[in-house]
Design a protein that fits this description.
The protein is an alpha/beta fold and 231 residues long. The chain has one domain (4-228): 3-Layer(aba) Sandwich (Rossmann fold). Helix content is 38%, strand content 21%. It is built from eight helices and eight strands. The protein has helices spanning 4-30, 35-47, 63-70, 82-89, 130-140, 159-165, 167-170, 178-187, and strands at residues 53-57, 74-79, 98-102, 115-120, 141-152, 190-192, 197-199, 221-228. Strand 4 (115-120), helix 5 (130-140) and strand 5 (141-152) form a beta-alpha-beta unit. Helix 2 crosses helix 3 (63-70).
Length: 231
């Protein structure tokens, strides 16, 4: 949820949709259908040390941050949209080590902090410079840390029609197929662990059909886990 004009767009497009984002996520969580959150949590549980410090970059309404916090991680969620951050802070966070901050500008990752993990959900496709963003992540990730990131999947047959009808998807600047995104991550100094896991699509929450979004031709997003090269 970011970019240079993206920062401004993030403060308009995502400010307008903050409440709707939160309501939709809460409905999915309550119904046990929040697959996005489950995928990010499972990846963090596997690749980030327990009680590790995680940066949730572009945290939106903070639902993934809260899920991570409930599983024992310490989390800093940041987002360029003040309204998104406000919605995130209104969650019940008592006894959780979860904090939220508004980004002043793109790539403005807190100085002097190192993270055991970085979570980046539906963000990089809005960035003015995806390579620079990945390099910024590399600089603040501990040597043994893990980057858990989603990318907009250009092979999804549902992406184009949904972009035309959806305000925030229409603001996206980039999409990739998996080999392209892997090459971008490698240029920034990362190596992927395994391939991409696909999710997010119109059939994801339909009983008996949700498994179809695991196909690269259906899932609108790909989830990747990466570590620093040679680390």
């Amino acid at each position: 949820m970011i970019g240079s004009d993206s920062i401004q767009n993030g403060r308009t497009v995502f400010d307008k949709t903050a409440a709707a984002f939160a309501e939709r996520a809460d409905s999915q969580i309550e119904g046990g259908r929040y697959r996005r959150g489950a995928l990010f949590l499972n990846a963090a549980m596997e690749h980030v040390p327990s009680n590790g410090y995680i940066l949730d970059y572009g945290c939106g309404p903070g639902r993934i941050s809260r899920i991570l916090g409930m599983s024992g991680f310490r989390v800093l969620g940041v987002d360029p949209s003040p309204e998104m951050v406000d919605v995130a802070k209104r969650q019940f966070l008592e006894r959780l080590s979860v904090a939220f901050e508004t980004l002043s500008e793109e790539f403005a990752i807190p100085k002097g902090e190192l993270f055991d993990g970085i979570v980046c959900s539906s963000v990089i496709e809005y960035s003015s410079d995806p390579l620079q963003l990945l390099k910024a992540f590399w600089a603040v990730l501990r040597p043994s840390g893990a980057l858990i990131i989603s990318f907009a999947n250009s092979r999804s047959i549902f992406r184009a029609p949904f972009q035309h009808r959806n305000l925030h998807l229409a603001a996206q600047m980039h999409t990739w197929i998996w080999p392209q995104f892997r090459a971008l991550a490698e240029e920034a100094g990362f190596r992927s662990i395994g391939g991409a896991q696909y999710f997010e699509g119109p059939v994801e929450r339909i009983p008996g059909l949700h498994h179809l979004t695991a196909s690269q031709f259906v899932g609108g997003l790909g989830l990747v886990v990466a570590t620093k090269k040679g680390e």
